[in-house]
Amino acid sequence: MNQESPLPNPGDAGQTDGVHPLIEAPALDRLLRRQTPVVLLDVRWHLGGPPGIESYRKGHLPGAVFVDLDQDVAGPPGPGGRHPLPDPAAFESAMRRAGVSGDSLVVVYDDADSTSAARVWWSLRYFGHERVRVLDGGYRAWTEAGHPVSTTEPEVKPGDFVASPGRLPVLDAEGAAELATAGVLLDARAAERYRGELEPVDPVAGHIPGARNAPTSGNVGVDGRFLPPELLRERFAQLGATDALDVGAYCGSGVTAAHEILALNLAGIPAALYVGSWSNWVTDPSNPIATGDG
């Protein structure tokens, strides 16, 4: 399998360096009230929708810094996909501007379902920062709990974060094709995109042959919060994904697939991310394309 780094052991899933991947709004509020140093990153982002900065300016968690998913967390779109891995120096600079240092506890959030927050969680971990958590339920969970919001953009002391890439496993097109037959490759897009009935973004519809459809919407409840680990394990087991097999995930451009990686992590199943995803796969006309449910 063509990967930049090996799949981690099952024991590596869940907590990393003693830090659970998720944090609930009340627990975060307690940390902030105790003035525990926390770097808050607002990464609200909408595919084809209004810029996330507009939501940030209307209200955000006090002290939060806006991070642009397109500009700060991904490289320029091209043959590598719509959201390829950023250059390590560029990502390092973006995180330093946001105040991230080597010892920072970072909490990332988006609107509600953690789709874009998970990509920042994954990226920080890929580049070597373990102390990062996702606010489960996002901005909606925070405001529904009655916690304060702000429209003030904080003054940020630059951090000293050093990007050390390759700390999580990734797939390229060759590795994804191999995993679809030798292991389990999950397609995190909506079912109609997987089947090739609808493709609103990329020039070709369908999926990687052998991939199994696991829309990320199934990882969360109606409130946008992740399902309990036991339900996630049950869901993925029904798709054949367990910690006994090599598992990977892809989507349209590597954003929602990072959400799948986080859900798999919560279920105790280590997995590799095909960062280029479908937007990279279709740039090579020799890559096969499947449609329908198979």
Mean pLDDT: 93
User: Main beta sheet: strand number and arrangement?
Assistant: 5 strands, parallel
List SSEs in N-to-C order: EHEHEHHEHEHEHEHEHEHEH
Shape: globular
InterPro entries: Rhodanese-like_dom (IPR001763), Rhodanese-like_dom_sf (IPR036873), Thiosulphate_STrfase_CS (IPR001307), TST/MPST-like (IPR045078)
GO molecular function: thiosulfate-cyanide sulfurtransferase activity
Domain Rhodanese: 34-151, 184-290
Protein name: Sulfurtransferase
Quick structural summary:
The chain is an alpha/beta fold and 294 residues long. Helix content is 31%, strand content 11%.
How would you describe what is shown here?
With 294 residues, this protein is of the alpha/beta class. It folds into two domains: 124 residues, Oxidized Rhodanese, domain 1 (3-Layer(aba) Sandwich), CATH 3.40.250.10; 113 residues, Oxidized Rhodanese, domain 1 (3-Layer(aba) Sandwich), CATH 3.40.250.10. Helices cover 31% and strands 11% of the residues. It contains eleven helices and ten strands. The protein has a five-stranded parallel β-sheet with strand order 1-5-4-2-3. The protein has a five-stranded parallel β-sheet with strand order 6-10-9-7-8, with helices on both faces. Helix 5 crosses helix 10. The protein is globular.
